[in-house]
Predict the structure.
Amino acid sequence: MDKIGNVDVSKIAEEFGTPAYVYDKSIIIENYNKLYAAFRKYYPNTKIHYSAKANTNLHILRIIKEQGGGVDCSSPVEFFLAQKAGFDNHRILYTGNYESYEDLRPVAFENLKLNLDDIESFKRLAEINIPELISFRINPGMGRGGHEGITTGGTEAKFGIPYEKAFDAYKLAKDSGVKRFGIHMMTGSNNLEPYFFAEIVDKLLIIAAELFGKLGEVPEYFDIGGGMGVPYSDEEQEMNIDLMAKLVSEVFTERCEKYGFGSPKLILEPGRFLVANAGYLIAKVTGIKRSYKTFAGLDAGMNTLIRPALYGAEHRVSIYNKPQGNNTINLCGQICENSDIFSKNTDMPELETGDLAVFRDAGAYCYAMASNYNNRMRPPEVLIDEGKAKLIRRRETIDDVLALYPAE
Ligand SMILES: Cc1ncc(COP(=O)(O)O)c(C=O)c1O
């Protein structure tokens, strides 16, 4: 990978330093339009709300807004950033987890679509305000994700209300004065199997039929979460989005008709699918060590990109201006943890200090999860737009770190 959006990788490294995250705007737009077009074709009343947690850079949020999308926020600061990016409140969802009073206060009077995690969250909200519209996140008793850490439905999941208990939450909301309702689920991330989405939508609709039948209400929207995956290795295939949209829309339409739900809004909350493959991480080789194994150290580590250390995730990596070779190399960072290893026993060209490594599919849950562990600074973020590279977040500095300490 020598160019990103037609800009030479070494030029980007020279101008912005390394490590650096780089995003290709045209790929984000292409991903959005692909998903939107597929659902518009099969179920026109579909809305896309980008899951801001995947990559909250204000400039990325603005790209989604320009395409006509909405946003899904998971915290007060994400809500604040969404507003700053220009989203109107009616285009903002708010889906928390164990929402505290502090999480609920800034959104309680904003007429957002609130997807509450539990009946207890509703009780806390009710002490602040009773909104007109409420939705609860349902755990449909099943889930699937690319790794255990990103499976968010099923009996081991900490998210949502078990579907058997959901009626109590809705009943309390109705008795407290809530007039309009939605229903939400999010069962796992990085799924590449179209049939899985149809299966969970089917389950949600069956749950909703019993629940809303008993409640005597019809939900205004069904939010089926995100979870659409991207391939992270050459062995994986891209998901067939058209097929996924077709299968989901078919089962959704059929069930809505059967249960008298009409044609409610179908909401999707994709994060990874919209931004993952638009992002790259450029890092520089800082040294080669011939130990029991051969290690190549980089100036990026688990502080920059934690997915491999966190759940054994893979990111394809190539070396600027060097063809793939057959030297067995372990690529690692500089952090004091032995889990700070990006790829084990990988075939690489002969490496030297100063080589540039380019990690692919680094647009989602990469910068967003970066830290300054070992007091390494977070990298800058760069956007490639029409062949030009623009800084969209500067590198963290020692002054940013010092600013957090009280004056002496
Ligand atoms: C509530 C909610 N919606 C949407 C998403 C986005 O998921 P993905 O990036 O897999 O599309 C997540 C991710 O964890 C989530 O928790």
The pocket of pyridoxal-5'-phosphate is lined by residues 51, 53-54, 72, 95, 186, 189-190, 225-228, 269-273, 364 (CB under 6 Å). The mean pLDDT is 96. The radius of gyration is 22 Å. The domain at 3-22+276-402 is CATH 2.40.37.10 (Lyase, Ornithine Decarboxylase; Chain A, domain 1).
